[in-house]
Design goal:
The radius of gyration is 26 Å and the shape is globular. Among the domains are: 93 residues, Immunoglobulin-like; 228 residues. The protein is built from two helices and 77 strands. It starts with 18 loop residues before the first strand and ends with a strand. The strands form seven sheets. It has a 31-stranded parallel β-sheet that branches. 2% of the residues lie in helices and 48% in strands. With 650 residues, the protein is mostly beta strands.
Length: 650
């Protein structure tokens, strides 16, 4: 059987601008398919897939299949009618394209064949029976590992029994292009030591590894022995069960401890540590993978590093992570002189990749007293994602925390969203915590969904239809930062800038900042602070709801701002062109507490923009909003922005 590596295009975004009092509601065209892979028998079959779209679309498919309907508008179910195949296995793509060509979705169709396939030379027979292309014993597994780099692309091997390796040291497989189907079996009790700059059971995977459990005898817990490390405690750049995945990892579960030692001197631009893969290149994909492994980092990081339960770091734009889960608690305490980015699923991505239906259940924590770094990022799904990332339908229930005495961005789903992208349909129930016990002058941002959104792109950054129920807390001994971003916390977004849409989100978690210093601190039930530094990149905030309590306190109270929907709407120190932000139809029913009474409000604490048709409720500093007072409590008295059409929440 041969499943080709294929490209999953990330969603492109196009802004449809509808002007209303200088605000823009941004609705990018988007199409998606579920499932992403279907398998068809050689006799031919008809399969279906769910197509979700908010636009007109067209569908194309391989020559040997008919797709119906071929075009349409909005959501539907498509039928893929595959004809009989009397040759070898074949595959092809069904491609849905938005009529404006701004979004595409792909589904891989794999059809079995009837032609015999010569398996070619393989490892010799085991002690009990002829080898063939099956693996049943530790001896047969050892022979397979030896010959694995020479196996032909697409050649299929199967594991037919659970295998106890007896604590054996295994040299890593340098490269793998064939297919290994574990049939649900377990391989455990082994040690891998790599003399390469990459460490893993497989250094580079260009093939398919599927349906297999590593490092556990029962499929549920760690075997206490299996590990991956560099030879003699040496250092390297990437480490994971697979060091570099350029192929397919499907239904792979790992409990194998991964030990990473940072090099004393910079050896490459980036480093990656992951439970399933250290890095991913080419069109690497991860489907239904689970990480239960411990990730141990030591040494001192002198270059950027991504750490993730599934994937550490990738520069590729053609990676897809679907229905993967991290169940391990990841506590990282390595000293850092550069940036570290930590996520339950992925640490850092640099391309327009897609992460869909993934979940983090483990506690993700950075615990280190030393503070020589520039900044760090930590999130339930990801650390820092650049250049048009798409995160949809993901969940986090693990506690997210950092005590680094430096700039920290923390998010229940994503710590930092950079240069466009889409975060939609995600849920966070885990607590998000920044706790700094020492005085510092660094800006901080925490959010129930996204900690920080930064930098413009050709398409907007969209944070849409997400829900947070976890607490968001920033506690600082004495923060005196003069950085423009100051200190911000929000139930959905900590701080956002430039080309952004935040719409249809709901927060039910408490949001609080306690700063024993005098730095400006901004807390909001939905957004801590939103700033727009140029008219060229409009910001749209609409239809968000907050039900959680919001509080903010600084040492002199003068620097604190708190709002039920948004804390700081438009104020950006040293910037003057920052009053263009409009909130439309947002609602608050939570309690707002802020000793700076001039900058506390049910909708906005300090508003320099426009509030339109919002619904104000809850309480402000203990005063419940009612018909007589709500108009005066919509926004802080120090606000210079306008509030029109606002009504009282009933």
């Amino acid at each position: 059987m041969k499943i080709k590596s294929f490209l999953f295009s990330a969603l492109a975004f196009a802004a449809c601008v509808a002007c209303q009092e200088k605000a823009s509601i941004l609705t990018p065209s988007q199409v998606s398919l579920d499932p992403l892979i279907i398998k068809v028998s050689a006799d031919g079959e008809t399969k279906t897939a769910a197509l979700t779209a908010n636009c007109d679309w067209e569908v194309s498919g391989p020559a040997w299949a008919v797709v119906e309907p071929a075009s349409g508008t909005g959501n539907t179910t498509i039928s893929i009618i595959v004809s009989a195949n009397d040759g070898k296995e074949r595959d092809g793509e069904v491609v849905v394209t938005a009529k404006d060509a701004k979004s595409t979705a792909k589904l891989l169709v794999v059809q079995s064949g009837v032609a015999a396939v010569d398996p070619g030379p393989g490892p010799g027979p085991g002690p009990d029976e002829p080898q063939g292309t099956t693996i049943k014993t530790a001896e047969q597994l050892a022979a397979f590992i030896t010959d694995a780099p020479t196996l032909a692309a697409g050649e299929e091997w199967t594991v037919e029994a659970d295998i106890d390796c007896g604590g054996t040291k295994i040299s890593p497989i340098a490269s793998f292009s064939a297919i290994l189907d574990g049939k649900g079996h377990k391989i455990y009790n082994f040690v891998v030591e790599s003399a390469d700059s990459k460490a893993g059971l497989v250094i580079t995977n260009n093939g398919t590894i599927k349906n297999i459990v590593f490092g556990s005898s029962d499929g549920k817990t760690y075997d206490g022995k299996s590990s991956i490390s560099f030879v003699d405690g040496g250092s390297g750049d990437y480490a994971g069960l697979v060091a570099d995945n350029a192929g397919v990892l499907e239904n792979v579960t790992s409990f194998v401890t991964v030990n990473f030692v940072a090099p004393a001197e910079k050896s490459s631009d980036y480093m990656g540590l992951g439970g399933i893969a250290g890095t991913a290149s080419g069109s690497g994909s991860f489907v239904n993978c689970t990480n239960g492994a411990s990730l141990n980092a030591s040494g001192t990081l002198v270059q950027e590093m991504g750490i993730g339960g599934i994937l550490g770091y990738t520069q590729s734009s053609d990676v897809r992570i679907t229905s993967c889960v991290n169940v391990a608690n990841l506590t990282i305490n390595v000293p850092i002189k550069k940036v570290v980015m930590i996520g339950g699923i992925a640490g850092r991505t640099n391309g327009t990749i897609v992460i869909d239906k993934c979940e983090n259940k483990g506690e993700i924590a950075y615990d280190q007293a030393e503070n020589p770094s520039t900044w760090m990022a930590i999130g339930g799904i990801g650390g820092v994602f650049y250049n048009g990332i798409t995160i949809t339908n993901c969940k986090n229930s693990g506690r997210i925390s950092s005590n680094l005495q430096q700039v920290t961005r923390a998010g229940g789903i994503l710590a930092t969203l950079n240069r466009g992208g889409l975060i939609q349909g995600c849920e966070n129930s885990g607590e998000v915590v920044i706790n700094q016990a020492e005085a510092n002058a660094n800006w901080q941002a925490a959010g129930g969904i996204v900690g920080s959104q930064e930098r413009e792109d050709a398409a907007p950054a969209v944070v849409k239809g997400n829900t947070n129920t976890g607490k968001v807390t920033i506690t600082m001994a004495n923060n005196t930062t003069a950085h423009q971003n100051r200190v911000s916390a929000g139930g959905i977004l900590g701080i956002g800038t430039l080309f952004t849409e935040v719409s249809g989100n709901t927060n039910k978690g408490a949001v609080s900042i306690e700063n024993k210093g005098t730095a400006d601190s901004w807390a909001g039930g939905v957004i801590g602070a939103m700033v727009s530094t140029t008219n060229d990149y409009p910001t749209a905030i609409s239809a968000n709801v907050n039900e959680g309590a919001v509080s903010c306190k600084t040492s002199d109270d003068v620097a604190s701002i708190a709002g039920g929907v948004i804390g700081n709407n438009g104020y950006y120190p040293t910037k003057t062109d920052n009053t263009k932000i409009t909130l439309t139809g947002d609602k608050n029913t939570g309690a707002v507490t802020c000793a700076n009474v001039g900058k506390a409000g049910s909708i906005a604490g300090y508003n320099l923009g426009t509030l339109t048709n919002c619904v104000a409720g809850g309480s402000v500093n203990g005063t419940k909003l009612d018909d007589a007072n709500f108009a005066t409590l919509i926004q802080g008295a120090a606000s210079s922005g306008t509030a029109t059409g606002t009504t009282l929440a009933k």
